[in-house]
């Protein structure tokens, strides 16, 4: 059985907060502009994942990939040009470190959004990553997303 992580895309013609859901599919982004920006969300709590999905879309992401497991996040990273990642550390099938290592090696900016974050350990292993405890203010993640998407 093959799994393709869940994607959502925004239809900008109807305004910034109107979206359409698409199961899988979609092309691999070819540019790093705000017009074509992909965010990976590795989160196994459905309500948190939905909130982060909406937050990413409102911040300007054109494609959001929600992966509730490490395996699905790995598939998403290998199949898509990820521009930014929001990662929970502890998912149902293990810790996200292998995926985070791959993102770091590709130079993808990321934020850890987790109740299991050890800031000293994460800062040492991922010096450019942002670390947000859970729960955290949505404004912090929204600011990070907007800075990354719009290169402000």
UniProtKB/TrEMBL annotation:
InterPro entries: CheY-like_superfamily, Sig_transdc_resp-reg_receiver. The modification 4-aspartylphosphate is found at residue 88. Residues 38-149 form the Response regulatory domain. Keywords: Phosphoprotein. The keyword Phosphoprotein applies. Signal peptide: none annotated. This is Response regulatory domain-containing protein. Residues 1-10 have a biased composition (Basic and acidic residues). It comes from Parvularcula bermudensis (strain ATCC BAA-594 / HTCC2503 / KCTC 12087). GO terms for biological process: phosphorelay signal transduction system. It comes from the Bacteria. Residues 1-30 are annotated as: Disordered.
